[in-house]
Design goal:
Length: 364
């Protein structure tokens, strides 16, 4: 996305605008704050940081329309009657009408309206072209839990007195009084653990959910763990650390022997807790389970393991794609067994639902 925005700044330079590097950096920071999935946010982030004077707005609007929306409007006529041309490598000659430039809602038509519809569409109902677009959007997500307090202390201007550093100051002054040194608790990233159901009933959502997991791993490689759940438990964290999402999913699929098979959530969760969770991976972590709750094993085993997980984890989130459908009621045995031990129960059937999941993880 940075390459796309820098390319837009380069086109503005071709159009005659003065766009120094510091303004480009300000635009990138503004887009990061407003979100790259919001076309209106991208528009205003660039306009407020790249336009230095009122005369730049007309050029900016025309360049934005051509670069992001592939719109080639007619050339405007200047006050002298001649046609004003903008030197761009593509046909771009229009200054947008004043009403359109002042109304941010116009920026979302027509391209943003299509993306908005796509964001809320069920992942199982997408065409090949729409699925490719959703995959590109998934790479922009950044699932990151809030940091947690650490036992370690760090120097600070105020807080509790740091005895060791205070004594060191006095010794450097050969015993003369010195102002006290202070310290405070530091913060460290909270671990995020993702358990993705890849059984037959979840096959239609597995690709998108693993791409969501890949985005989480790429965001925080050292504090994110990913496992697949089916008839057995498979750790795929290392495979998902590859920069390219397609190669990462191909590598993880080669590790999973039970793809599109049955579901034994209770047994897989017990293996996770016995081998990794109890030893510290789940302790104080945000654990997210992606599953529809279909359980071929003993539901009581799943209930017992969910109770163990709830005691260890900081927060337990269950993502069920079927929850986003109207009239859904959690009646399957696996969901009935797990619900009493959950902190959050959310949908996961669309890109918009996964965006809300990012917010749930961040609030944890």
């Amino acid at each position: 996305m940075i390459e796309v925005l820098v390319g837009f700044a380069r086109c503005l330079r071709h159009a005659g605008m003065r766009v120094p590097p510091d303004r480009v950096q300000a635009m990138l920071a503004a887009v990061d704050a407003l979100g790259v999935t919001d076309p209106a946010g991208v528009y205003w982030a660039g306009r407020l940081t790249l336009c230095a004077e009122p005369d730049d707005i007309a050029t900016y609007d025309a360049a934005f329309a051509a670069y992001f929306r592939q719109v080639t409007p007619p050339a405007p006529v200047s006050a002298s009657g001649s046609v004003s041309r903008i030197g761009l490598p593509f046909q771009l000659d229009q200054v947008a009408p004043r009403a359109e430039r002042d109304d941010p809602e116009v920026i979302e038509e027509p391209a943003a309206s299509d993306i908005e519809v796509l964001r809320h569409r069920d992942l199982t109902q997408l065409t090949d072209q729409e699925r490719d677009e959703v995959r590109r959007l998934l790479t922009l997500l950044a699932p990151t839990p809030a940091p947690r307090p650490s036992r370690r202390r760090r120097p600070a201007r105020r807080g509790e007195i740091d005895p060791a550093r205070t004594v060191a100051r006095i010794l450097r002054r050969v015993g003369e009084p010195a102002p006290p040194a202070y310290r405070r608790k530091s913060r460290k990233p909270r671990r995020l653990v993702l358990l993705v159901d890849v059984s037959g009933s979840m096959a239609a959502y597995a690709d998108a959910l693993l791409r969501f997991a890949h985005a989480a791993v790429r965001r925080r490689p050292s504090s994110t763990e990913v496992f697949t759940v089916g008839t057995r438990l498979t750790r795929v964290t290392r495979a998902l650390r590859h920069r390219d999402p397609d190669l990462a999913l191909a590598a993880s699929s080669r590790l999973v022997p039970d793809w599109s098979g049955g579901t034994r959530l209770g047994e897989a969760l017990k293996v996770f807790l016995d081998r990794w969770g109890q030893r510290g991976m789940a302790r104080g972590a945000v654990v997210v389970l992606f599953s529809d709750g279909w359980e071929r094993g003993d539901p009581s085993l799943l209930a017992d393991q969910m109770a163990r997980l709830a005691r260890l984890a900081h927060r337990v989130v269950w993502v069920n794609p079927h929850k986003g459908r109207p009239g859904y009621v959690p009646l399957v045995a696996g969901m009935v067994a797990a619900l009493p031990h959950l902190d959050d129960f959310v949908a996961g059937h669309s890109f918009a639902a996964l965006e809300r999941l990012v917010e749930v993880i961040a609030r944890a």
